[in-house]
Amino acid sequence: MYALSRLEEDGLMILCASPVYPTSQPDYRPGARLTFEVLEVDASSLKRLVGKTETFGTDPQQLPFIGKLVSLDHCTSTVVALSRLRHKPAMRGVIVIERMIDLRDPGQTEN
Is cis: bond before 64, omega within 30 of 0? Predict the structure, then answer.
């Protein structure tokens, strides 16, 4: 479980959805897909980002990454952590990773 945030132009990370549950092992290499589930009630900000490329963050220990939210669709949840909430609508999202960024070194934007 993690929170999904996006980087604003002023450098602040703004929460998009929390909690978010990964459905695959996180892989941040270019071209990889980050798949996750979220309750629909927690996904209102994400709905506005479908089809857009943003700088996202999932964890304070993980470098932010540039990615495109390619889909956010209703689903029947498969995440164990949501098993007691199966009666609530869930959504599955997919972000395609473009690249990692290091905000500490403005001259170094790719890993």
Answer: no
CATH number of 2-100: 3.30.70
Say how many C-beta atoms besides its own lie within 10 A of residue 2's C-beta: 17
Beta bridge partners of 14: 6
Structure tokens at 68: 């495109």
Domain ranges of the chain: 2-100
CA separation for the pair 100, 111 (Å, rounded): 6
On the question of pLDDT at 111 being above 60, the answer is no
**Which residue in the block uniquely carries the two structure tokens 């980087």?**
7
Kindly report the pTM of this predicted structure.
Answer: 0.86
Q: Specify whether the CB–CB gap between 61 and 41 falls below 8 A.
A: no
44 SS3 class: helix
* Across 105-111, average pLDDT: 49
Tokens of 81: 């952590």
Residue pair 17/6 in contact by the 8 Å Cβ criterion: no
